[in-house]
Amino acid sequence: MHLSAVKRCALELGLPVHQPPTFKSPEVQALLGSLRLDALVVVAFGLILPAAVLTVPRLGCINIHASLLPRWRGAAPIQRALLAGDLTTGITIMRLAEGLDTGPMLASRSIDIGTRDTAKTLHDGLAALGAELIAETLEALAAGRSRELVQPAEGVTYAEKISKGEALIHWRQDAPSIWRQIRAFNPRPVAETRLRGQQLRIWEAELLDSRRRSAVVLQGAPGMVLAASSDGIDVACGQGALRVTRLQLAGRKPLPAREFLMARELVGATFEPA
């Protein structure tokens, strides 16, 4: 059975662990009251806490949110930031309210989104930043020196939950859009296409710069493999081309392009749907 890092640490320290299926029941709310909580911290919780719970802890209910609010309220802020091509994101520590990520902000800190960032690398960086910032914020709350800032009404966007269908690559899109899709869906649900009727997952790719010597200058229909070498598999898009560098056939392990090509001739093949 997989245990979260928080639960594993709590058990190692001999702390009681409660996992109620809902916070709406009077019994669970009474349990929370009996714990005499200073603060209740949630991260990636996925549910809105009922109003009766929000006032239970002495210092309130606090959320660690992986975006710079009010941009990307909701379930999938990391993936949506990557899909949108955002250059920065960050962590917002906010006081929970009855709405979805609408509460006042207690602290925030930004980080740049690099061209090699995926949902995994961005998640890991934000997790470390969130841990640091929540510790600082709780100290400030306990000392009575915390300041709250109401979220601005302008700039609100919503990060809808990711659906499996969004992972399907449509090669008629421009290369930058597909490149962002591949990065946003690594490691879940993983961008995918079809090769000769088989599912083909694309884990990593690079944008091809037409100014580079190694870039493909040939043109082809969207999804057509234009070139293949140890550097990668160059695929035509609606505009531009991508170099696929790590991929995986159904039932196989992910492979670097050079290993994938050892037993396959791909030039002229077409990734589908186009």
In short:
This protein is an alpha+beta fold.
Task: Write structural notes for this entry.
This protein is of the alpha+beta class. The chain folds into two domains: 37-159, Formyl transferase, N-terminal domain (Rossmann fold, 3-Layer(aba) Sandwich), CATH 3.40.50.170; 164-272, Formyl transferase, C-terminal domain (Methionyl-tRNA Fmet Formyltransferase, Chain A, domain 2, Roll). The chain is built from seven helices and 13 strands. Strands 7, 8, 9, 10, 11, 12 and 13 form a seven-stranded antiparallel β-sheet that branches. Strands 1-2-4-5 form a four-stranded mixed β-sheet. The chain has a two-stranded parallel ribbon with strand order 3-6. Strand 9 and strand 10 form a beta hairpin. Helix 4 runs antiparallel to helix 6 (175-184). The mean pLDDT is 94.
Low-confidence stretches: none
Helix-strand category: alpha+beta
What is the CATH topology classification name of the largest domain? Answer: Rossmann fold
Give the averaged pLDDT, no decimals: 94
What is the β-strand count? 13
Question: The biggest beta sheet, please?
Answer: 7 strands, antiparallel
CATH architecture of the largest domain: 3-Layer(aba) Sandwich
Assign a percent range to the helix content. Answer: 10-25%
**Domain unit count:** 2
The total of helices stands at: 7
General form: elongated
Gap from first CA to last CA: 40 Å
